[in-house]
Amino acid sequence: MGTSRSDRVHDVVVVGAGPAGLAAAGRAAALGADVALVDGAAVPGGQYWRQPADDALAGSVASLHHGLARYRRLVERVRGIEAAGGWFPRHQVWTVTREEGTFVVLAITGTGAEEREVGIRGRRLVLAPGAYDRQVPFPGWDLPGVMTAGGVQALLKGHAVTAGRRVVVAGTGPFLLPVAAGLAESGATVAGVHEAASPLAWGRHIGAVVRNVAKLGEGAGYVRTLARHRVPVRTRSVVVAAHGEQVLERLTVARLAADGSVLPGSRTTVAADVLAVGWGFTPQLELPMALGCATRVDVDGSLVCTVDDQQRSSVEGVFVAGEACGIGGADLAVVEGEIAGAAAAGTPLTDRRLLRRRLALRRFAAAMHAAHPVPTGWIDRLTEDTVVCRCEEVTVGRLRSALPLGADDARSAKLLARPGMGWCQGRVCGYAVSCVMSAWTGVPPSPVSIAARSVASPLRLGTVAATEDPSSAAES
Amino acid sequence: MTEQSFTFDGRPVAFRSGQSLGAALTAAGVRSWRTTRADGRPRGLFCGIGVCFDCLLVVDGRPNERACLQPAAAGMQVESQEGTGHGHLEV
Amino acid sequence: MAEPGSDVVVVGAGIIGAACAFFGARAGLSITVLDRGSVGGGTTSRCEGNILVSDKGPGPELDLALASRSLWLDLAAEHGAERYELEEKGGLVVATSEAGLSSLRSFAAGQGTGGVIAEPVASERLRDHEPNLAAGLPGGAFYPQDMQVQPVLAAASLLAAARDLGARVVTGEEVTGALRGADGRITAVRTARTTYPTAAVVNAAGTWGAVVGERLGGTVPVLPRRGFILVTEPLPRVVRHKVYSADYVDNVASGDAGLETSAVVEGTRGGTVLIGASRERVGFDETLSVEVLRRLAAQAVRLFPFLAQVRLMRSYRGFRPYCPDHLPVIGSDRRVPGLLHACGHEGAGIGLAPATGRLVADLLTGAPPQLDPAAFDPMRFVLEDA
Question: What is the residue extent of each domain of chain C?
Answer without folding.
Answer: 6-49+151-222+325-385, 91-144+223-322
